[in-house]
Amino acid sequence: MSRILRPVLAMLSGGGVVLSLVFSYLTNPFTRFTIVRPTFEARLADGVLEAVDRNDRLVLRQSLFWRLLAMYTCGLYILTSRYLHSPRSAARTVDGIIADIHALRFDPDKLLLISGDHFSALFVRNLGVFYYPMLDRSIPGSAQDWQDRETTYLQTLGYALGAFAKQAELTTTIVSAGRHAATCVNFYAYPSDTLYGMLYALAALRGLEPARAASYGAEVHELHTTEAAAVLLDRYGDSLRHHYRDYRNRVLDEDALIVTPTIHLSGAKDITRRRSAFYDNVVFWKTTQLAMRLGLVADDPEFLAVLKASILDRFWLPEEGYFLEDLSPEGVARRYYSSDWLIVLATGFLDPADAREREYYARSVAHIRATGVARPFAIKYQGDTRAHRQFLVVRLAVASYGGDAIWSFWGMEYVKTLLLLHRATPWSDASYLDEARYHLEQYEAAMLEHGGFPEVYDADGGMLTTPLYRSIRQTGWVIGFEQARQMYRAAVTEQ
């Protein structure tokens, strides 16, 4: 152990600090003079995206030293973004800001599709959570913009598949560590949604997932990725089967048919310590469904139905009218709520067009309205901070991050929920459409004020900033805003 820690300590003292800064700069794939080169690339030829897979060149550096170094560089990027680098869009209109963000985040010449700014590493969940609308063919845009979206999404998936084909265990994050090198690390536990992110992306690229919760308009783009996705499925299928078996063995209580409450998992709300979160259970259900649809495991619709019923039975609180956050003793005793229940929309776990399932949405929205969780605009994880539930580093740096901060991604999922409830019940409750318009207008005003589409806002609606953290300013999550805005426009037209 001392032999491993000695170079780490040296790195943090004297000239080691300078060397670590240089290393962090050179291995950041988004800096001007980065040494990182892609091992998986795609280019459009004759109407088809063709992939060049050189993942055999990818080297994983997984010793304790490299994992500590990876975490150190990630922390360094956060501080750099806080104090040195958080550029605004130069545009003065909402559409101009969107165009600037697309050019910045959906650049196929860059290694990865990332959230932006300090998150220069790949959090693989992004593919199925924050960036699930990437291949929505109903979002308007130029042919070049669409091609860039397809290419960036495909290349990011190819890179992740190549890394985890060399790694027996999934992690939350892949950090660049050299020209063709990477280190896989966990923030803060084994991931509940890494496999989901890869399988969702693979299904979307194959044309099996529409990248939207419901149809709302004509498709204006043609999908060029189906053949490349088929090649990826064939090449990495064995690796994905291994990871699904390992994932299921780790997280599922096969008797109770829920995610086991004896372990912590990292999901989208990874900053909070939870046990068998509702989010993690829904993601497991969807991951299994995707594995079946992609032919990685045997098709078993009966298992999916029983699993879904078990999840609903354990987490729905009929008297309160919302989903329980998790099955930890504290969570159960205090009847905790968390807005990442909205994952039910993107995953199709619950369908607001189905009268039997619509009640879950309608009552949850009523709870949100009653508690003010969507004010001043949508949406906070919950109405209080609950800092004691967060990991120490987050609690010290930005305690509200997993609490009463406003998350733009979940805000857009809430807006989409309102719009689909309006579609299902236009004759009985016009307030759904009115509230959706309100939140979209608030987000447009915030975009103009901050010169971007921030990842997260403070409880009062300002861009979240603490002495140790500043929100991403121009996050590619704006694609979710574009989807919600198009859904709203379609709803108004239908009236």
Summarize the helices and strands and which ones pair or pack.
Layout: H1 2-11, H2 15-26, E1 40-45, E2 48-53, E3 59-60, H3 64-83, H4 94-105, E4 122-123, H5 143-164, E5 173-178, E6 181-185, H6 194-206, H7 226-251, E7 252-253, E8 258-259, H8 278-293, H9 301-315, E9 316-317, E10 322-323, H10 329-333, H11 343-347, H12 355-371, H13 392-397, E11 406-407, H14 408-424, H15 431-450, E12 456-457, E13 465-466, E14 469-470, H16 478-494
Transmembrane segments: 7-26, 64-84
InterPro entries: 6-hairpin_glycosidase_sf
Keywords: Membrane, Transmembrane, Transmembrane helix
Structural account:
The chain is α+β, with helices and mostly antiparallel strands. It has one domain (2-494): Glycosyltransferase (Alpha/alpha barrel), CATH 1.50.10. It is built from 16 helices and 14 strands. It has helices spanning 2-11, 15-26, 64-83, 94-105, 143-164, 194-206, 226-251, 278-293, 301-315, 329-333, 343-347, 355-371, 392-397, 408-424, 431-450, 478-494; strands at 40-45, 48-53, 59-60, 122-123, 173-178, 181-185, 252-253, 258-259, 316-317, 322-323, 406-407, 456-457, 465-466, 469-470. Strands 3-6-5-4 form a four-stranded mixed sheet, with helices on both faces. Strands 1-2 form a two-stranded antiparallel sheet. Helix 6 (194-206) packs antiparallel against helix 7 and helix 15 runs antiparallel to helix 16 (478-494). It starts with a helix and ends with a helix. The mean pLDDT is 94.
